[in-house]
Amino acid sequence: MQKFLLFIFGVLSIQSVNAESLQNTVEHALSSHPEVNASVNSRYSAEQDLRAARGGYLPSLNLNAEAGQKNLNDATTRAGGNDSGMNLSPNDATVSLDQNVFDGFATTSEVGRQKATVDSRAFTVLNVSETTALNVVQAYLDVLQREEYVRLAQDDLANHERIYDQIRLRTDQGVGRSGDLMQAEARLAQARNNLLTEQTNLEDAHTTFVSVTGEAPENLSLPEQIDGRLPKSLEDAKRIMESNNPLLKSANSDIEAAHQQYEASKSTFYPRVDVSVSHSISNDTDTTRAHAEEWQAMVKLHYNLYQGGSDKAAMDSRAYLEKQAQDVRNNTLRQMNQEMGLAWSALKSAKDQLPAAAEYADRTVKVRTAYQDQFSLGERTLLDLLDSENEVFSSKRRLVELRYLEISSGYRILARTGELLKALKINPTPAGQPIDTADNNALPELK
Fold first, then answer.
1. Range 218-221 contact pairs with CB under 8 angstroms and sequence separation of 24 or more
2. In whole angstroms, what is the distance from residue 385 CA to residue 371 CA?
3. Angstrom distance (rounded) from CA 404 to CA 393
4. What is the pTM (predicted TM-score) of this model?
5. How far apart are CA 369 and CA 364, in angstroms?
6. Which one of 15, 183, 264, 381 counts the least CB within 10 Å of its CB?
7. With contact defined as beta carbons under 8 Å apart, do 234 and 228 qualify?
8. Count of beta carbons in the 10 Å neighbourhood of residue 189
9. Cβ(71)–Cβ(88) below 8 Å
10. Per DSSP, what are the bridge partners of residue 292?
């Protein structure tokens, strides 16, 4: 087992093992990624809508005022001998205070709907952050994996160049066959092509990394093991996911928002009661040119008795929207279960194959060494020697592939359970907190 572990770490030779490098990369991406920022702004917008809805509990204070000129020509002015009418300079002002007493629970339901919407947007921020972090991790690991492939291809090319030089020297000395030289040239060309392919794939990985993180990859290091943070079984993973996945939490909040919207639609079946207090002052508004003041304190009731069935249809529509939200949540859970199952299967498959792959890679190296000695003694053909080189390259490449598949699958599982940021020791943005736990006075200033 010790030999197996040494072989794996030998193949995955990285400059240093430092989890901070991946953590810093993810933190930078989360702070600057437009999709994360868009979700944060959407959440803060919903919080302002909630504040607007809560304004329905408070009174409304209004001031109405007017002033101007008018000419009044009526029977009164003409009876006074003023056939051209009377010029007036009327002005009046009214201050009114209105307070709703009962609106059929419309305001209460609207506040509940906006609160659920804020929670939905907050969980969306968390989901976008987890998804973005996973994309960063995958791009990060892909660069490391492609760099390993390039190193393996460089070693493979160097070995083929050594064999080619050896065969050419034999041919030049007249002890080698031209067919062997041609075979060595063909395999050398293949090794060069393999290196070019791996270098191209590495450049593509760099491009993806820049797109996801906003910065170029430099001195990346293999992150620390996360096996201790993974669930013990697929059933545990699904249970944690169902209770903690932010996308599912967002869907649950959408259901609550739709339910509150349905409750608000019932308000049209209740009367509306308001209390109004007003004070009016007027001057020079009629022929008396008198100053007048008026105080009012009124209780007003409005009750729509029939509206052509529109209210009932609107309520039924909201009921269907609530059912739609439930179906969306159920479909989201189905997709999450599928993704979790695939990630868990990939993790298990990689773990199961790694010991055999490591042993195979170790043995191919030994076989190559033995074939080189036997080729020097004339006991092996050149084709045997070249095939052993290809087998070493393929086995080591497969070992690297499985190792990174194991690592990336583990991060995929953490992302689906909503634990990725926690595993990376990254505090999510405050905008990802539900309304009951968020600091409602800490909204950022608009710029």
1. 219/15, 219/21, 220/21, 220/22, 220/25, 220/140, 220/143, 220/144, 220/147, 221/14, 221/15, 221/16, 221/17, 221/18, 221/21, 221/22
2. 6
3. 17
4. 0.85
5. 9
6. 15
7. no
8. 12
9. yes
10. 282
Whether 386 and 371 have beta carbons less than 8 Å apart is answered as no
Instruction: Give the type of residue at 407.
Output: I
Q: Which residue has the tokens 């207090």?
A: 277
- Rg of the chain, C-alpha, whole Å: 38
Give pLDDT tens digits for 152-200.
999 999 999 998 888 888 777 776 677 888 988 999 999 999 999 999 9
Place of tokens 């074939």: 371
pLDDT of residue 438: 56
> Would the CA dihedral through 208, 138, 343, 329 be positive or negative?
negative
Residues whose CB is less than 8 angstroms from the CB of residue 22 and which lie 6 or more positions away in sequence, other chains included: 137, 140, 220, 221, 223, 424
Tell me how far apart the alpha carbons of residues 86 and 77 are, in angstroms, rounded to a whole number. 7
User: In the prediction, which pLDDT does 248 show?
Assistant: 96
Cα dihedral 216, 222, 227, 228 sign: negative
What would the two tokens of residue 6 be? 């040494």
